[in-house]
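Protocol step 4 of 5: obtain the predicted structure for the target chain.
Materials: sequence only (see below). No template structures provided, no constraints applied. The aim of this step is simply to have a reference model before the mutagenesis design in step 5. Sequence pasted as it appears in the construct record:
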Amino acid sequence: MFAQSFGRGDFSVSGCRVCAGPLQALADFGRQPLSQAFVRPDEVSTEFCYQLAVGICTDCTMVQLLHEVPTAAMVHEGYPYHSSNSTVMRKHFQDTALSWLDNELADRRDPFVIEIGCNDGVTLQTLRDKGVRHLAVEPSGIAGVRVHKAFFNAASAAAIHSADGPADIVYAANTICALPDIASVFAGLAVVLADDGLFVFEDPYLGEILARTSFDQIYDEHFFYFTVRSVQNMADRFGFELVDVERLPVHGGQIRYSVARRGRRVPTPAVAVLLTEEEGARLTNPSIFDDFVARVDLTRDSLMSLLRRLTAAGHTVVGYGATAKSATTANYFGIGPELVPFVCDSTPAKQGTLTPGMHIPVRPPADFADPYPDYALLFAWNHADEIMAKEKAFRESGGRWIVYVPDVRVV
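Step 4 output (structure tokens):
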């Protein structure tokens, strides 16, 4: 099912972006707009679109998009997501930085940390405040920390190494999965990572996506969908080694991967434990996606039926959180302003625009309570606890939340 078309754009991937192996199609969510391309009313005719489909490499097991959206189209000066808008995510990144000071960086003289795609800089700001040398490699620009405004690759890494020396930690959060040219990232690591340094990155975990039916984690900015097995294969291919993994509760379930130069560290038992879990869950078996797609379509049918019944009965339904992932939900399901008249979001750059593709107006949070709707469709379901605690008055007024991951519920 797809609600409408949005223009043209075909950037098919001919082979695995990790190993060039053959790709087997797994799921197709139709033509989609860019997930962060919020448009003004006079811009709707110019929307870029692409085919949102995922496949698996039958050689290295990496799950990835079958159509690549140019990175430059997604990342720019006005990129609207900011980690510090969430108190949970701000604390997560602060705690990450502080843990390095107590552990990985504790015995190093004049440590140096690089972050790839630092967004609004929460992690590096924490290190900066503790006197740690740091550098953001960030094409969209950020204030408050040292920045090398570029994409991370061998050339930028060489310039950084010349100016600052080797990095003890190269870190990335919700970034590596967005970079189709993964070979260039590892080429940069080969240049700038210290001999005993760590490349640490955290991204959505395919195991959680499948278990929770969190299909909306699949969108243009998530090119790769990592498992421990596929990351292990990827690191090995580029001369590195996966040495540690850690489950994270944020963003609907992620894993933090630690990669070192081959032979420099002994992998922790956690790597073997999760590899065994993945084998039992058949995460590298393409057939597991058949059940996943069936559950996604059941979610679609249940949610659309609920929204239509509520609208027909005269109830008001408002969206909450104009997230990137909500583009997949709205456009694959066909949720438009006739069912959800507007969506509230705290990001100023999004307010006054229309959501990608389905063109639902985005309004500031003040409009949520003026007056409260009968129901709120929680697009930002991965921040449910934080949002529901903040919007306690909505529940007290009789309002109900609609969530759809892992299934459709009214709470």
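Step 4 remarks: The mean pLDDT is 93. The longest helix spans residues 288-312.
Proceed to step 5.
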